[in-house]
UniProtKB/TrEMBL annotation, chains A, B:
Required co-factors: FAD
Organism of origin: Litorimonas cladophorae
Annotated family: Belongs to the FAD-binding oxidoreductase/transferase type 4 family.
Name of protein: D-2-hydroxyacid dehydrogenase
Gene Ontology molecular-function annotations: catalytic activity; FAD binding
GO biological process: respiratory electron transport chain
């Protein structure tokens, strides 16, 4: 290995690599302290060519590589164990922004927030928002096909990309950057890198799709009897494609937030079993109020809702969203949690809860399911909090025992064991066991074709 | 070869294959009579399993296969030259239609029209319309990533697909059917088959995305001074994402239609150098009229338009669309045509015309460019009609001499030499010569990984 490391140090300019433990340390720590890693060298290229140089040397010496963005991943795919760590954090340029083509070309190390800001300044919307948007990077969100709250209207990250520039496993540079909406010249190569978690190459830049800014965003918070009732509202709430957010929270998770965080208060007088948060993107405030009053009014008539608040100004809208944004953080008040990020077909959400809630009680009686999230996409963050008063560490030892029945139910219902966080290290065995043999054969065939020596993030995904 | 053919005849049920020349003949003729083929056997499976059986036998005997849908392709990818011809035309079932998930699972041989009808009956929209929709099939439009008039709002076919079922080159069945909007468990395998022109496997079924039906479609036809003027209107005409069609026609092509077809008349009193046809998808007729009057009124104030007709009823709207739909057919009145289907970045459309029109005159003085189509996507059907009074056959011998300068200009401007028709036989050499070596290496690596013996449509694309 050391000959390869020496070659890297020789070929790369000063400042494009380090072996200083203090500088490397933050790159080895996962923010939840779930993973801790090690690396012989941290490479921080400033250009695509420097990435290519580094990869070529690693290829020649068969050194494994892990690419890293904002280090905010949730499945262990960003914590090295002896891989050469290539951080894209110095490649932050916005290379181009074209409002006629509604396209923006940006380097992999740019934070999502910087992309959102640049689009906003150009009077455009880039419709991807995540709680980590201040630190997560374009390369990371593309490599993990991140989701978020706007998938319902705009799709996952994959749908927001025209093409990518990527350094392949042999160090060659694939240039798929484009703003063309139509290009039928071969397989969709850029798409292969989206959600590939760095196992096929390193994304160094991407051309992203921009959208018109909505004139007004109307928000509402609704108290409901059940998760099934939320699903029953979806069709009417779509309002001809104007629905842009459809987030659901159970009482236990909602209360953990509103009862514990300073500055967050419950806008309702009474508690409700479930809560629905929605946004409609419209032209004018008047149109927003009219849609919200109309669809919520009809839902009241049908006895589908218990109570509702239609946001009347930006402060109220921000306060409501803040509850949803604190859902993950709020769970710490419930003790330890075993977390799942799953999808089921939308019309199977109620069935999923019925079966999964029962299965969880069989494994750990008294445990408290907190299933919240993007129900409009069928995506449930199905987290299981420890029984009240029980031992945190003892409970967390049940992670796998709780997860396997959840995954079994998901498989039976035709869902996905990873909706938006990816496979990484955490779910690699689950994928191999649960995907069909034909799917695994295809995944491995593509991996072997593009990375025959398995140097690109080799412990991850496939 | 004959042992393999015998094995096919033995393994498949009666009625699932034929060697009768009369029955095979229509499958060998391209509708424009540009290609004519031959095949040792026509296989017409009724089930995915029968497709798999046929492919397994072909794989064992290394017999090349060509899959065929509605036989409406435009680049020679559907005309066999001794390949085993597998027609999907008997697999027409709509397996499932789910309005909660807004998803529909349909077999590859179903016509696009039958999909449009089924969606319509369920009060949904499937937003792909093509002039060949009565005969083209789901498998064909997915394999060629067909475009059409609604790409501007809904994207190409690729964007309208959740996943596919496909028979791979070894006869195994990949099941990617799903209605999940979020699934981060590995590379986007279904996507690989979209636009692959049958070179990686045979699509046997697909789950398609459905959309809410617009309440009202407002149409307008506008007379313009130049193609550049059309592009200058795009931004204002988008109207917050409501613009669903933005089609442009030059005077020569427009006149060929309105002056020659019975039942089609020019709604304008005067002729204009260019014409723009647009649709807005809105809630109500009132909203449609208001948007059209507003954006067109502002364009008049800015001297961007010469004349305009806002459709006031369905008949008027249908009459206007009919002109656009006859653009291809209308060209026969101009004599022989050399045809190109290209994309350039939207803000390069005017530059493209300036350079390409001049280049064409250099090759064949007096030739008449007819560049029309989906300018909102940067997609121009840049067809070159013979000089008036010249010899048709002599002119058509200039096909390659006219095409190469067009492709050169497209490459310089960062465009695509195939926007929506694909590569097929026709542009295979152009792709190999014009794509970057890294792109060709990737295309070939994927082809080899999934079809190592090159039995899947081996003369096509890559």
């Amino acid at each position: 290995m050391s000959a390869g490391i020496d070659a890297l140090k020789e070929a790369l300019p000063t400042g494009a690599w380090t072996q200083d433990p203090d500088l490397i340390d933050p790159h080895l720590r996962e923010w939840r302290d779930k993973y801790f890693g090690k690396t012989p060298i941290l490479v921080t290229p400033r250009t695509t060519e420097e990435v290519a140089t580094a990869v070529k040397i690693c290829a020649a010496h068969k050194l494994p590589i892990m690419p890293q963005g904002g280090n905010t991943g949730l499945v262990g795919g960003n914590t090295p164990q002896d891989e050469v760590l290539i951080s894209l954090k110095k490649m932050t340029a916005i290379r181009d922004l074209n409002t006629t083509a509604n396209a923006m070309t940006v380097e992999a190390g740019a934070t999502l927030q910087s992309v959102l800001d640049a689009a906003d300044e150009a009077n455009r919307k880039f419709p991807l928002t995540l709680s980590s948007q201040g630190s997560c990077t374009v390369g990371g969100v593309l490599s993990t096909n991140a989701g978020g709250n706007h998938v319902l209207k705009y799709g996952t990250t994959k749908e927001l990309v025209f093409g990518v520039e990527a350094v392949l496993a042999d160090g060659s540079i694939f240039n798929g950057l484009t703003s063309l909406r139509k290009d039928n010249t071969g397989y969709d190569l850029s798409r292969l890198f989206l959600g590939a978690e760095g196992t096929l190459g390193i994304i160094t830049a991407a051309s992203l799709k921009l959208f018109p800014k909505p004139g007004y965003v109307q928000r509402a918070l609704i108290g409901l009897e059940s998760a099934a009732m939320a699903v029953s509202l979806l069709e009417a709430f779509r309002a001809g494609g104007k629905l842009a957010m459809f987030e659901v929270m159970p009482e236990i998770g909602y209360r953990a937030v509103v009862d514990n965080f300073d500055g967050i208060r419950d806008p309702f007088a009474n508690s409700h079993p479930w809560y629905l948060l929605c946004d409609w993107e419209v032209e004018t405030e008047e149109e927003g109020q009219s849609i919200a009053e109309n669809v919520i009014g009809k839902a009241f008539e049908n006895n589908q809702v218990r109570d509702a608040i239609i946001a009347l100004n930006e402060t109220q809208a921000a306060d409501i969203l803040s509850i949803r944004e604190h859902m993950s953080a709020g769970q710490k008040f419930l003790g330890g949690s075993v977390k799942h990020d799953i999808t089921v077909p939308i019309d199977q959400i109620a069935t999923f809860f019925k079966r999964a809630d029962a299965a969880m009680q069989n494994v750990v009686p008294g445990c408290r399911p907190v299933g919240f999230g993007h129900f409009g996409d069928g995506n449930i963050h199905y987290n299981i909090a420890q029984p009240e008063g029980s031992d945190r560490e003892a409970f967390l030892k049940n992670w796998d025992a709780l997860s396997q029945p959840v995954f079994d139910i998901v498989d039976t219902l035709g869902g996905s064991i990873s909706a938006e966080h990816g496979i990484g290290i955490m779910k690699r065995e689950d994928l191999a066991e649960r995907a069909s043999p034909v799917k695994m054969k295809l995944l491995r065939a593509i991996k072997s074709a593009l990375d025959p020596d398995r140097i690109m993030n080799p412990r991850v995904m496939v």
